[in-house]
Structure formats: C-alpha cells, structure tokens
Design brief:
Mean pLDDT: 86
Radius of gyration: 19 Å
CATH superfamily: Mog1/PsbP, alpha/beta/alpha sandwich
CATH architecture: 3-Layer(aba) Sandwich
Structural class: alpha+beta
Distance between the termini: 51 Å
Low-confidence stretches: 1-23
Strand content: over 45%
Helix content: 25-40%
Shape: globular
Number of domains: 1
Strand order of the largest sheet: 3-4-5-9-8-7-6
Length: about 180
C-alpha cells in the first residue's frame, strides 16, 4: 500500500509540474474591459468596418499557428462597438435578430455549413456558441459571440474536424473573462 501511495504522489508531482509549464507558455491579453489567453502573442490590428448601420471600430487579435505545429490553425478575438442607440444587450427585443444575423453572415462569409448553435452567457450578458464546418468539412470553426451592452466580442478557433474540442481550443474559449 505504501508503494502505491508513493507512486501516486510521484505521478501527482509530475502532473502538477507539467501543468505549470503549460500555463506559463500562454500569452495573456488584458484590457480594462476583458482578458483572454492565446497560445502565443497574437497580431493586433484595428480598423473601421463599413456596415449598413455605419462605421464600426473593430479591434482584432489573431494568432495563426502555421509555423508552430499546433493542431489548431487559428485563434482569434474581434471586438466591435455598435451605436448604443441601435444595438445593446439591454434591448431584448432585438437580441434574437442580432445573433441570427451575425451567425448567418459569418457562415455565409466563410462559405461554411452550420453544425451547431446554442445560447450561452457571460456575467449575465447574452451570447451564442456556434460550430461551423469549413472547407468541405475538413475543419471546424468554433465561435463564441457575446453582446455586452453595445460591444460584441467574438472568439474563434479553427481546427481539423478530428481535433474538435481539443484542450487548447477549450482553454482559449474558456479563458475569456469580462472585467466590468
């Protein structure tokens, strides 16, 4: 019994060491509004996107893994601020339309096929989790979209279909936290 306990203790120490090593390899992005972890430092860009409701300021953080041997192809976060008078998470009458239009536009934009969609929330704010078959079902895009007051947060990963919901995909999506 003592040998089993010692072996278990040795394995527990090894596992905790490996977990610690993995934690320090990720890159933390913090803003006054949110935080999120990426496997490596993402490229940050911002732009104004022309839409039917006017120009939207959009900030993007993208990490493409093509050179790193990661089983996932891309990790991304985009934030867009909408005119508060038109789109706001407090305006419950427009939420279904907002999310439906956003999901449909994204599926169409990547020429994908909607695999699944479910309502989610963060700190009481509404959201959607969506999976889309991409590139003739060779890859899956997992997207979480939240509307926090008049700001949309969109996290996405792209991975091979056989690697759906791997640990890094889950860690990335679950690392997103609101600060306010």
């Amino acid at each position: 019994m003592k040998k089993i306990r010692n072996a278990f203790a040795g394995i527990a120490v090894l596992i905790s060491t490996l977990s610690f090593e993995t934690l320090k390899d990720w890159y933390l992005i913090e803003s006054p509004e949110f935080s999120i972890e990426f496997p490596k430092k993402p490229e940050a860009t911002n732009q104004n996107v022309h839409t039917e409701i006017g120009d939207l300021k959009t900030d993007m953080f993208v990490y493409e893994t093509s050179k790193d041997g990661d089983v996932n192809f891309l990790y991304g976060l985009a934030t867009s601020e909408y005119p508060d008078s038109l789109i706001n998470s407090g305006k419950t009458a427009m939420l279904l339309t907002f999310f439906r239009n956003a999901v449909d536009a994204f599926v169409k934009n990547v020429q994908g096929k909607l695999l699944s969609e479910k309502p989610i929330e963060i700190n009481g704010f509404p959201g959607k989790e969506v999976k889309i078959y991409f590139q003739d079902s060779a890859a899956i895009i997992k997207m979480r979209l939240y509307l926090v007051r008049n700001k949309a947060y969109v996290m996405q990963t792209i991975t091979e279909t056989s690697e759906d919901n791997n640990a890094d995909v889950m860690r990335f999506h679950n690392s997103f936290k609101l600060k306010k």
